[in-house]
# Entry
Amino acid sequence: MGKIFVDACLGKETPYTPVWMMRQAGRYLPEYRAVRTQAGNFLNLCHDPQKACEVTLQPVDILDVDAAILFSDILVVPNEMGMKLDFVTGEGPVFESPIETQEDLDALIGAEAAANKLTYVYETIKLIKEQLAQDKALIGFTGAPWTLATYMIEGQGTKTYNICKKMMYSDPELLHRILAKVTEVVKFYMEKQIQAGIDVVQIFDSWAAAIEPAKYDEFSWKYMVQIADYLKAKYPHIPIIMFPKGIPAFLDKVYGNFDVFGVDWSTPMALAKEKLGDRYVLQGNMEPCRLYSQEATRECVESLANTMKEGRHIFNLGHGILPDVPVENAKYFVKLCQDVSRRK
Amino acid sequence: MGKIFVDACLGKETPYTPVWMMRQAGRYLPEYRAVRTQAGNFLNLCHDPQKACEVTLQPVDILDVDAAILFSDILVVPNEMGMKLDFVTGEGPVFESPIETQEDLDALIGAEAAANKLTYVYETIKLIKEQLAQDKALIGFTGAPWTLATYMIEGQGTKTYNICKKMMYSDPELLHRILAKVTEVVKFYMEKQIQAGIDVVQIFDSWAAAIEPAKYDEFSWKYMVQIADYLKAKYPHIPIIMFPKGIPAFLDKVYGNFDVFGVDWSTPMALAKEKLGDRYVLQGNMEPCRLYSQEATRECVESLANTMKEGRHIFNLGHGILPDVPVENAKYFVKLCQDVSRRK
# Structure
């Protein structure tokens, strides 16, 4: 039995347009909150293959989405490169000793040696694949090198990114060496996720919008393309989704060997279709806050279906689902996407 | 003696392209920090016309920018509408009782009665005008109704805007009534700023990017245009600058009776010129973090000068200057903008 989600990623005809949601394994689900409470903290949950598998499968069972996405966190990569990571309640992730110098960078584990330490991720993938229905796909993922580097340099989330950007404009060579080292680890990490059984790769550049358009290729996109090139050379049958959040002004310059472009909600789908629809399948892009209202959800899903009726499309939100969304609205969204597109 | 900044706003020929910086009266200046310390806290500084005048004039004296911008805060408006405001160290502005219901909204003071309470702002403007050189302009400002409403509804700064956006999608009528009430106050507020002596109006929609492009006109832009229409009908000689931050995907739909469009750094100036350059003077848009490096500053200023060499332009940053920028780099930026454009 084929996987409709994989077919859609590869641009093949499918009986309806598949759908999943970013952060679909998350706090809006009571079942997730229960497992999370058992695990004690967020990082424990990422480190526990049984529990990570359980929460990965929840939205498939509860919402009938067409793809599961591996439950993990993008920051396990710098963590296993040797950076001590804590998740502080109310503050988010914190690295105790951010990278400030070449020496700090040199002290980190690189390439395959770092990727080899992420055994709990590969173990989780194997468990999921044993339990996931044959017609559903499993998406593996990574943060883009730029997004990972922002945390490694700032030490935590930031509103202004001023430490990274001071480096970008004052010592761009050091920033490039950090990005190159992270890129090497990520290549091996994603290769090992593929070997463990994922069906599709998504690369999240959550903080793409922190870079001015004139510098985005140099400091982020080209590294994402290097990862895609590496994987496509060895695993051409595995679709790759690029999700750079918030770069509507960069669409004219998007290039590379990948399959699906993830459209965030700040970019009108019609604009993405005009600029990229002939080269890539488009994924997205309902404003996640529309899930607070079924009427607002319907308005957007019908508009997206109409915009993409002659295009290659995967339904999704334009960013992650929020914790206080009613589960019934998430169910409504998933079913509506599948129904609306089946009618066409 | 004419004011080069006002002339440039009105699209007239000027001997060079004028320059100012958003947040130019700010923490990167030791002279500002000294006055701020004397004032005790930020709101005290806004309420003290002598001190607010002093910090407004500092960047004119120190950097020789072509325009001063009134030192104040956008949140004095909801504060004088009756919402108790605190600036909490490390957390930013906090309203004790955010608007949740129609009753909360009805309890607020509206229209001219609220604007009449902002006497300390008008007093500050009069003091500044007594001391500002004749060839320099004074910019007055307000937050856009949407940006003000985000704080009034969330009670504080937010990453997700989920409370306002729940209202946007679930109870849009209430959100419109909030926006309409704020708009009425702002019309009178800006009129009184003009009567007190400001030369130019800037409307900051700092959180424009929180609204999806399909809803931006309905929930923000149209209210900004209402304010501009009101002011232009009575004070056609006063230039109006619109600064909606982070809406590159909305440029095709920009309309209204104003003079200058403020381009944020996420929007390439060439794109803004293509979409808007025939209708509006363009202001901006260097990435503020480029000020960490004189080389990065020069690269951008020369590129902007080149892009705008046949266009109507005002130099500025694409967002506010950051507190840890070296003062000498800010001086370098201002002088370079004036020199580069004088050469053309």
User: Anything to note?
Assistant: The mean pLDDT of chain A is 97. Residues 70 and 108 of chain A are 25 Å apart (CA to CA). The beta strands of chain A are 67-69, 85-88, 92-95, 137-143, 200-205, 240-244, 260-263, 281-284, 313-314.
